[in-house]
## 1
Amino acid sequence: MYKKFFCKVNCFIALFIFLMIVQGCVRNGKTGTATGKKSYRTDVPYLVVLSMDGFRWDYPAIYHTPNLDSIAATGVKAQELVPCFPSKTFPNHYSLATGLYPEHHGIVQNSFYDPVLGKYTLSDRKAVKNPEFYFGEPIWVTAEKQSVRSACFYWPGSEAPIKGVYPDIYKQYDGSVSFEARIDTVIAWLGRPAGERPHLIMWYFDEPDHTGHEYGPESEQTKEVVEHLDSLAGVFCRKINQLSIADSVNLVFTSDHGMQAISPERAIALDKLLKDRWVNLVGGANPVLMIDPNAGCTDSIMSVLKNVKHVKVYTKSSMPESLHYSDSNRIFDIVCVADSAWSIYWKASHFSTGGNHGYDPSNRNMHAIFYATGPAFLKNYVSAPFQNIHIYPLFARILGLIPAATDGSLTPTADMLRENVRE
Ligand code: AMP
Ligand code: ZN
Ligand code: ZN
C-alpha cells in the first residue's frame, strides 16, 4: 500500500515538474506566447515594422539601395527621422514603441541606475525582462488590450510584461539568429490561418549598427552591409507579395538613430580631471556620461567640466529644453555630452575608432530612416523630417487603436496617410 501511495505521489510530483517546465519554457525560454482563450479581432489591417539598428537617414543617398528606393516609390519616406536624446538603441526603440521621450518612458540610457530597482543593462536578462523598469504603453500592449494580436521579434522592451501584458508572441534576444531566419519566421506568422496570425509585428536587425561602430559610417564594410540589408528588404517584400493577405499588409522600415564617424584623436577622459571624493557614481556611455555627485560637490565638478573643450555639461536645471532630459530620477544630476564626432570616456583605457551615436539629435548624422508602403500610405510621397515620438500615434491610427497618452501627436505624420485612414 505504501508502495502504491509513493508511486502516486511520485507521479504527481513528476506531473507537477513537467507542468512547471512547460510553463518555464513558455515564459522564460526562447519563445513566449500568450496564446490561449483570448479572442482577437480579424477586421484590422496588418502592420509589420522592421527596425534596422543604426541605419542613417542618408545611407540610401550614398549607397545603392534599390529596394528601399522602390518602397519609397510605391509608398512614403521621411526625409529624416529624428531620434530622442540620447540617440542610443534602447531609449529610441522604446520611444518608437511608446511615443514618449526617454525621461518619461524610463529607459534613459542603454544602462542606468534606478534608485529602487538598481542597475539596468542590456546584458542583464533579469533587468531587461523586469516590467518595473518600463513606463508608458508600448504599441503592442495597446494592441493586445484592444484585442489586436501582436508579435515582437527582439524589439527592445518586448520581453517584459509591461502593464502585465506580453505581446502574443515574443522572443528572448539572441543576436546569432540569422536575418534570413527572422524573415522566414515573420513570413510564417503572416501565413498562419486568419484569426491566428498577428496583425502587428515589430522586428529587429542589429545591423548596420555593429559594422558602423567598427568601421565608421562611410566605409566599404558599412556600404556592403547596408546594401545587403537592402537586398534582404527586397526578399522580404517579395515574400510578402506572395501571401494571400499581401494587399492588406503595411510595411515599415525604420531605425533608432544614425552613426557618426569618430577618431581616437578626438577623445577625452574625464576621471583625472575630477577628485574621486566629488563623485558618487558615473553612468551612461560615450558620448553621454552622467555623474551622480557627492553631496555639496556639484559646483566643484561643474566648475572643472565647463572649461573642458568639446564637451557640453549640464545640470538637470540647466538642461536645454530641446533635449527633454531632466524629468527622471534615473538621470543623474550632471550630464556630459561630447560634441559631434568627439568621444568622452570616464577612464582613458581605450579610445574607440570607427563610429558612434548617442549625440544631441541636432547632429544630423544621428537621424534615421522611415520608409513605409501599404494600403494605409500614400504613393511616392516624401514627408518632412519628424521626431520618432510621433510614430506611436501613426501606428495606432493605422491599426484603428485608441492611443495611450504620449509626448507625440498624429499631426506631423498624418500627411503620409491616405485620406480614408487620416480621418
Ligand atoms: P548600442 O549600439 O550601444 O546603442 O546598442 C546596440 C546593441 O544592443 C545591438 O548591437 C545589440 O547587440 C543590442 N541589443 C539589441 N536588442 C537587444 C535586446 N533586446 N536585448 C539585449 N541586447 C540587445
Ligand atoms: Zn541602435
Ligand atoms: Zn550602436
## 2
Amino acid sequence: MAEQIVSINPSTLNPIESINVTTREELLEVVKKARQAQAAWEVLGFDGRKPFFDRLSAYMLDHYEDIAKFISRENGKPYLEAILAEVYPSIDVVNYYSKRAKKLLSDKKIPIRIFKFMGKKSYIMYKPAGVVGIISPWNYPFAIPFSEIIMALVAGNAVILKPSELTPLIGKKIKELLDAAGFPEGLFSVVYGDGRIGAEMVKAQLSKIIFTGSVATGKKIMAAAAENLTPVVLELGGKDPMIVLKDADLDMSARGAVWAGFMNSGQTCASVERVYVDESIRDAFVERVVDYTGRIRQGDTLENESTDMGSMIDQRQLSIVENHVKDASSKGAKILTGGNRPQDLKGYFYKPTVLVDVDHTMQVMTDETFGPLLPIMTFKTEEEAVRLANDSRYALTASVWSKDITRAESLARRLIAGTVTVNDHIMTYGIPETPWGGSKESGFGRTHADMGLLEFVEPVHIHIDRAWLKNKPWWYPYDKKTVLFLKVMFWMTRKMKFLMS
Ligand code: TXE
C-alpha cells in the first residue's frame, strides 16, 4: 500500500484527510509531462496565457471564503488572517502580473553606442526558465507557493509544487483552483511527501528550485542543486528587529509590535522577533505592549471568526518556543505576560508572550523562534540600536518607528535586511510591486516585483548584424585594416566621448 500522510487540524488535533506520498517514479513522470506541457505553454505567448489568469482571479474572487476556511483548518491560523495574509494577496498577485508581466517580459533594447553605426543592434528576450520546482513551507502554505506559481506560469514555465508535509491539502487545493481555471494538463502538478521527495525534486534536473524554509534545509538543497548546477532561490527566515525611537508614536508602535510579533502565532519569516526601544520610553512602551497583548483572543478560529490568534503548527515548533523561553528565563529574562500554553485549548497553542531584561546571549535574541514571543531590549543611542539590529546571522526584514520620517529613513538605510520599513512591519509581502527576499542566512534571490519575475526567465541576448560590413575590421587577418580600425576607435574615444560612453 502507498505511504500516506495524515493531515491534522492543529487547533483541534483532529485528522482531516490522508494523502498518498508521491514516489520517485511518479515524480519523474510528472517532470516528463511538465516538460511537454511547458513547450506548448511557452508557444502561446503572454497574450495566449492571459485568459487563464483572468479566469483564475474571477474564480478565486467567487470562492475566497472557502479557500480561507480551508487554509485555517489545516494550518490553524485565524480565518480572517487567512483572507488578509494569504487569499487576498494571492488574488492581487494574479491581477498584478496578468496586467504587468507583458511589459516586463517584452524584449528590451540595449543601446550599443558606436556599434549601431556599424549596422548592429542588441536586445534582450526573456525565455521561460522551463520547469520550475517550488518547495514550500507550512507557515503561509497558500500565499508563499501561490505567488511563486503565478510568477512562474505567467513567464511561460511549467511548475511542480511540493507543499510541506504538514499542509499537503492546501497544495491540493491550489491544484483544484488552477484546474477550475482550465490550466493545461501537466503544466502545474503537486507532489506530496516530506524532505525525501523534496530531495528527489532537487535531483530531477529541473530548471530552477524556489525554496522557502529553514536554513539547514536551504543549505542541503543548495549543495544538492550544485550537482546539476540547478539555480536556486532561497528564502530562509529571519530574526527581524524593530527599532522604536524615542519620538515614536507610542500607541501605534506598541500595536504594531504586538501585531507583527504575534500574527500567525509568530510563525512568519518576517515577524518582529526582537524589539529595541529607546530606554527613555521603555516603561511606557512596554506597558502598552503588555496591555495590547492581554487583549488578544486566542482559540479555534473556525469556531469563532473574531479570533485574533490561532494555534501553532505542531509540537516540534511549540517545543522550540518553550526552549527559547526556558533559556531566556534561566539567563535572567523576565516574562511579563504569557510564558506557557493555555490550559483550556486542546491544540498546539502557546500564549502570546512578552519578555524583558533580555540580551544577545539568549537564543530568543539570536535564533529564529518562529513563535509568539516578543522580547524587548533597550538602547541608549541610535548607534547602539543600529549595531544591535545588525548583530544577527539573519537579514530578511527590519523596521524603524518614529514620527520623524527623515530621521527614521536615514536609520533604515543603515540596517542590513532585504526590506526595511518605517512605521510598519511584514505587510509589504502583500504589495506585489515590491521585492521580497534577504541576505546572510536569510538566503538570496528575490520573489515578487519586477526583479522577482525575472527569477523565472532566462535573459537571452539577441545580437543582429545587418551585414553592412562584409569583412569586419576585427576579423582575421590582423593587418592594415585592423590598425586603421583601432586608430579610429582610439581617436573617437578621445575626441567623441558622446559616442563612446
Ligand atoms: O522547515 P524545512 P521546517 C524555519 C523556522 C522553523 C524551521 C523548521 O525557524 O522552525 O525553519 O521548519 C522540505 N530537500 N522556517 O522543518 O525542513 C519540507 O518537506 C528538499 C522558516 O518545516 O526547511 C518542506 O516542504 N526539500 C520559513 C520544506 O522543505 C526538503 C518557513 C520546508 O521544510 C528537504 C518554514 C530536503 N532535504 C520554516 N528537507 C520561512 N522562510 O518562512 C525538507 N524539505
## 3
Amino acid sequence: MAVIQSFGAAEVVTGSCHLLQIEKGPNIMVDCGMFQGVVENRNFEPFGFDPREVDILLVTHAHLDHVGRIPKLVKEGFNGRIVTLRSTMDLAEVVLLDSAHLMEEEYRTRFRKAQRRGAEASVREPLYSVDDVKAVYDLTIEYVEYGQEVKLGKDITAIFRNAGHILDAATIELNFKEKGEAKRFVFSGDLGNHNDMVMHDPVFVKEADVLYIESTYGDRNHKGIKESEEEFKKVITNTLLNEGNVLIPSFAIERTQEIMCLLKQMYDRKELPECKIFIDSPMAIRATRLYDTYHEELSQCCNDFLKRDGSVFEFPYIHYTLKPDESKQINEIGSGCIIIAGSGMCTGGRILHHFKHRLWNEKNALLFVGYQAEGTLGRRIIDGERHIHIYHEEVVVRANIHTINGFSAHADQNDLIDWMEHFERLGKVFLIHGEFEKQKVFKKAIEERMDKKAHIVAPEEKVYV
Ligand code: ZN
C-alpha cells in the first residue's frame, strides 16, 4: 500500500513538501518549499524524513514556498533526480539566489550587532548559502514538457500539466501499478486564476484515484478581474494627469508581469498618459526576461504582443533599473513616474526609498495590487498608519492609498470547484496548502456543492491509499 505524508503545507499555506512512498518503488517527493511568515521557524527544524532516502523530487513551480527548502534537502544528503520543466528550474534559480543573498545579508548584520554585545554565538546561521543553491544545480535535473510522459521507475510515470498559476507551473499526475492494479495520484500544485492576462487557464485532468488539491482561497471568491483592471487604470490615469507619481509594491514573479501587460494594453489603446515606467527590482527584471524567453506557455494576449513587437512586455515607456544608482536617480524626477518595485509587502527592498521620497506628497498614489500579510508595513499603511519610519526617519503618508484586491495568481472557491467538477472520475479528495480555518470552509463547500467528502491533511499524517 502506498503512503503519502505532508511535511509542509498541511493546515498552513507555505512549506509545500509531500512524500509518496510506493511499496517496492521509489520514494517520490513533490516540492520542497520554505515555510514563510508566522511559521518560518519550522524551516530550521529537522525535515521529519531522511533526505538521503528520497529518490526523486518533482517540482510543481518556482515559488519560494514550493522550492525554498531544496538547498537544505541537498545539503542534508538528497542525491536523487530532480524532474520538472526547464523554465521552473531557471526561475527557481533567480528565487533561491535572491533568498540566499537576503539571508546572508541579514546574518551578517545580526552577527555584527551581536558581536558588539559579545553574543555572536547566539546568532543562527542562514538556512542556506549561495553555494548551497549552486549545489542544487550540480545534481541530475531532468527537464520535461507539458503533456510528456516521463518514466520514474518500473510501471511508474508522471505527466506535468499547465496549472496556469505562474510561468510553467504544473499539476502533476502520477500513474503507477500496485499489485497489478493501476492507480493515479494527482497533485494540483497551485492552480491559477481564470482570465489572467499573462497565464493560460489551468488544464483539466480527467481521472484521479487520489487528489491532493491546494486550498489557499478555498473559502472565498475573488472580485472580478475586469472590475479590478478598470479600477487600476483609473488610479493610473488620474494620478498621472494630476502630475503625480504612482508607486506599486509588487511581487517579482507574475504580478509584475501582469501589471506590465495591463500598462502595455493601456498604451496600445492610447489610454495611458505619457509617463516613465520603472521596473525597479533586479529580481523582477530577471523574472520578466524568463517570461519572455519561455513565452510559448503564456496567454494568447502575450503571444500576440510578442508577434507584433518582438517582445512580450517591452514598449517605449518601460525602463529597467537594474543597478542601485539607476534606482536612486528616479528620485530626481518630479512627476510622471510609475514605479514598480519590491518587496511586494514593503518589508524591505527598493520600494522603501521610494516611500521616503514620495509618500509625503498628496499628489502621488500608492497602489497595492497584492496581498499584504498582517504585521507588514504594507498592511499597516492600508490599516491607516499615517506616520511611518523608514531608514530611521519619520515619513508622513499623504499620498492616496488604493488597494485593488482582484488580482490573484490563485484560483478562488468557484474556480477550484469548477476544476474538480471537470474530473470524469474522482476518488478521494485531500486538502493541502491552506490555512486551517479556510480549509474547513472549503471542505464544507465541497461537501455541499459536490456531495463529496474531503479530508484536511494534518502535518506528517500518514495517508494510506
Ligand atoms: Zn505558488
